[in-house]
Amino acid sequence: MTTLRMYGTAPESIVDGPGLRFSVFVQGCTHHCPGCHNPESQPSDGGYLCEPADIVHEIHKNKLIHGVTLTGGEPFEQVEGVFELAQLLKAEGYDLWIYSGYLFEDLMAGHPHEKAPDLLALCDVLVDGPFVEALHSYDLNWAGSSNQRVIDLPATLKSGEVALWKQDTIDFEAPSSW
Asked: Fewer CB within 10 A of the terminal residue: the chain, N end or C end?
């Protein structure tokens, strides 16, 4: 079993992807983006150690959770542990989002780790690219700066071209009896 260095978790998040999600924040990030929303997660020697199975156990405590977001820090700088966690979660049918300061194309080329494409294959959405403070906007859905992409990974991996994720919309109509 692989150990993860963790910054922490958010057991009920509505800001790291659609719906009520469990967010996993890994510790350590070499990007050091100016204006990072989570600078305390950057030092690789901070945080605490945790096994992926322990995180899954925590997620199970809330039966309303159907989605998990892997973020940080930088998840691709702990590929082995994050991959193990993603395997456990995917086997149970969780929707998986992952955030990274690396670009999709670099991750698929095996940077920073040769197992990065395997981790991407387990995830449903990747929000990629470094946070750029000058491009920050609160008007963006799920990204912090306009250079970041919200990528539909199954569609992208199937077609071989980056496909942006589109949120399903729900239309509500008043019943005819109103």
From this structure: C
- Yes or no: say if 88 and 2 are a contact pair by the CB < 8 Å rule: no
**Residue % of the chain over a pLDDT of 90:** 89
Between CA 115 and CA 99 the distance in angstroms is 16
Strands ordered across the beta sheet of 4-13: 48-50, 4-13, 21-26, 67-72, 95-99, 125-128, 149-152
CB of 42 within 8 A of CB of 89? no
CA distance linking residue 45 with residue 174, whole number of Å:
55
- CA dihedral defined by 41, 44, 49, 52, rounded to 10 degrees? 80
C-beta separation of 66 from 19 below 8 A: yes
pLDDT band at residue 174 under the 50/70/90 scheme:
low
How much is the pLDDT for 168?
Answer: 76
Distance from C-alpha of 9 to C-alpha of 155, rounded to nearest angstrom: 28
